[in-house]
Design brief:
Length: about 500
């Protein structure tokens, strides 16, 4: 029976020949080349991405090496690139991919023979003395040497190695898909933190402007009161409004610092890192036109989302584990060989002559291992593996439901966000006009302080709602791309169109 009969169908002749030639290459090649060959003889590490960010970075940052401080001002692309490289979550899943790639190499190694060597050397010196009778004294010394080499090469095992290798491959596929999903999650978390920090920064500016407007209203009321044409109540109300505006400004300064710290943390930096952000960009002119119904988007996500791909790979790995567990209870055929060398040297009693002995043993044969009875343990191990596969099947169904629900919610949130953004823009414009009118009326003595303060409060509230709607709109676009499993740096470059051709959204 040929040793290659039990190789899986994916094992091509070129790889089989490479395995046969490995010992010769190692012996005859130069030391440096041999080291490179032995570092990854099965080329399994080729599937490991070069950086934690995989292939998501731009050509400038594709090595995940960012020297010096962060750019100032910091753009969303800058923040995302640094987060994908430095966030502990991406580095953790990257390490997991490396481990699973090594597990695939372990699966391939089962097709090669194992060679085990042992060596032993013993020396003995024994003296026997009899007080009063020196003629009976004896002295013996001896040495023993034993060397052994044992070879074992499994030739056929009813698919045990193939099942283990397939399980390792599927787990590597799952690890890669999980890596993709983690990159999507960190990407979205960074974008959310960035937009929240931008909003906090813009809100601070708006609150400063509101404080300045409240100060002007207070000074106008105070001037009228000093001139004797205004009431003390008007002055006190304006002063209270001014103090409240100052309080909001102070609070927004703290919130802005917290938002900057959260952004720095998700980027893998310390919270006290110095970061200066770009201002909020108004992208309402780039609103997408929805050309696909939500049913098509859900169907697309079910086939492409990394979460589902990972669940599918884990299911296939669990099915392969059933085959592996079953095959482990079947016979196996192995080629076994051994070579033993032993030598002994001894000096007889009273050093009268010496003796030496050398023994060499060489054996080669076929070994059949047949598990006859394992106390029904194999039966229950197979049942356990089948139950694990059922569990993975349920996890796959749950992943499909969760992804579908996330697409639905993200789609609806995006539509709602579009309408909210339009409405808040109209609201700010109306509130600004109302405030200008109220301010003019109060200045000329036509309006009262209550009218002015209400218009001032409405304008501040409208501006805050507009900033919140803008941030939610930005995040909802990225969230929909994430729910489809297609979020990338291309979504936030160029013309600001965050959803590309593959989503069917322009």
């Amino acid at each position: 029976m040929n040793a290659m009969n039990s190789l899986p169908h994916t094992f091509g002749w070129s790889k089989a020949r490479a395995l046969v030639l490995i010992p010769a290459i190692v012996i005859t090649s130069i030391p440096g080349y041999a080291y490179d060959l032995l570092s990854d003889p099965f080329n399994v590490m080729e599937e490991v991405p070069a950086t934690p960010a995989k292939n998501t970075l731009s050509s400038i940052g594709n090595t995940c090496q960012f020297n010096g401080p962060s750019p100032s001002p910091l753009t969303l692309v800058d923040a995302v690139e640094r987060a994908l490289c430095n966030n502990p979550q991406t580095r953790q899943v990257w390490a997991h991919v490396k481990a699973q790639s090594a597990a695939v190499g372990t699966g391939w190694s089962a097709y090669l023979p194992t060679l085990h060597g042992t060596g032993r050397f013993n020396y003995m010196d024994r003296r026997s003395d009899f007080p009063g009778h020196p003629e009976y004294a004896t002295h013996v010394n001896s040495s023993n040497t034993a060397l052994a080499l044992n070879l074992n090469w499994v030739l056929y095992d009813f698919g045990l190695r193939a099942a283990n290798l397939e399980s390792a491959r599927q787990l590597l596929n799952a690890a890669n898909a999980t890596h993709d999903d983690t990159l999507q999650t960190v990407f979205l978390d960074t974008a959310k933190a960035f937009y929240e920090a931008q909003s906090a920064q813009a809100l601070l500016v708006a609150n400063k402007e509101a404080e300045q407007a409240a100060e002007k209203s207070f000074k106008a009321a105070d001037a009228k009161y000093v001139a004797g044409v205004g009431a003390l109540a008007d002055k006190l109300q304006a002063e209270t409004s001014y103090a409240q505006a100052t309080l909001k400004r102070v609070q927004s300064e703290g919130e802005q610092q917290n938002a900057i710290g959260s952004l720095a943390s998700v980027m893998g930096l310390r919270p006290n890192a110095a970061i200066q952000l770009t201002g909020i960009i108004d992208e309402t002119d780039a609103e997408p036109l929805f050309q696909q119904v939500v049913d098509d988007l859900i169907e697309q996500a079910v086939h492409n989302h990394p979460k589902i791909l990972a669940a599918q790979a884990q299911l296939e790995a669990a099915r392969a584990q059933i085959d592996s567990t079953s095959a482990a209870g079947l016979p196996s055929l192995a080629l076994v060989a051994s070579y033993d060398h032993s030598g002994a040297s001894a000096t007889p009693i009273n050093n009268q002559g010496s003796s030496k002995q050398s023994i060499d043993n060489q054996e080669i044969g076929l070994q059949v291992s047949i598990p006859l009875f394992e106390g029904f343990g194999r039966h229950y191990k197979v049942r356990e593996a089948e139950a694990q596969a059922e569990n993975k099947q349920a996890e796959l169904a749950n992943a499909e439901q969760q992804v579908s629900l996330e697409v639905w919610k993200s789609y609806k949130a995006l539509r709602t966000g579009m309408e909210n953004l339009k409405t808040t823009k109209t609201l700010v414009l109306s509130a600004k006009q109302s405030f200008d009118v109220a301010q003019g009326r109060y200045k000329f003595g036509v309006g009262n302080i209550i009218e002015l303060l209400k218009a001032q409060s409405d304008l501040s509230s409208a501006e805050q709602q507009r900033l919140l709607a803008a941030a939610n709109w930005q995040t909802s676009r990225l969230r929909l791309a994430t729910s489809l499993g297609q979020l990338s740096l291309d979504n936030i470059r160029g013309d600001g169109n965050l959803l590309g051709m593959e989503t069917g959204i322009r």
